[in-house]
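for the writeup, i need someone to sanity check this before i put it in the appendix. the sequnce is what the collaborator sent (i think, or maybe the updated version? ugh). structure was predicted straight from it, no edits. if anything looks off just tell me and ill rerun, i have time this weekend
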Amino acid sequence: MRIPAAVLTLALTLTGTSAGAIESRPLRVMSLDQCGDQYALALAPEAELALSPRADDPDSWMREAAAGHRRVRPTLEAAIGFQPDVVIRYWGGDARLLARLEQGDVRVVNIADATNFDGIRRNIRTAASMLDVSPRGEALIARMDARLSEAAPARVVRQRPALYLTAGGFTAGRGTLVDAILGAAGLTNLVTNTGFGPVSVERIVRWRPARFVLGFFDQSRGDWRGAGRHPALRAAAQGRVAARLPSASLTCPAWFAADAAAMLKTAG
């Protein structure tokens, strides 16, 4: 369906709304994906929220807070119907909506693919500033930093190497948020390559790392036939699993990455 440009301008900008009307209603915040949901729920809980369809999925960190909020598909039609003041996104949104947002006056928060905790701090400050809740953003950062302090070893410890492994059979090397999580807990990433990549079942069976950090294994229906669930890998990891990180702590470059690090504090 072709929508006239004039209608789009009215629907996705504030030009057609009087100042009095804006002041009389709550801020309208639309999230285009699950990661955006987390930021919207944490930073603007009192706003009128339009969350993504995955806001209450098991791998959503703030799934309980999502209860009672509307869910919309990340489409241009949904945005026209909701008329958001602020849009938050990490990867979501159809091409027509993204193109229109680039032309309009709606405030758009683009969550960056942070690879360390400084990047997460920037994400929080950017989102909080766009939502006019900077003090709330600083409070969220303080919470994250407190969790990082809890995760840090109480003293200098000997090198504690670990291999991160997902149910799908992937691992994470340098320059990834997973690497930063391991480091925050005093673990050394065994993977020296950069980025994410598949693991070799045969190599791990021969190598038998001293510690495994498992991710996304709590999704029983996800990657159930992935290489990470191979019987040989299960045997290699037997008695060597330092921690099983819930998928909800790993799906978004956000403050709860510090919670994942805290979960590794007791890693042997």
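Residues 201 and 252 are 27 Å apart (CA to CA). The longest strand covers residues 161-166.
thx in advance!!
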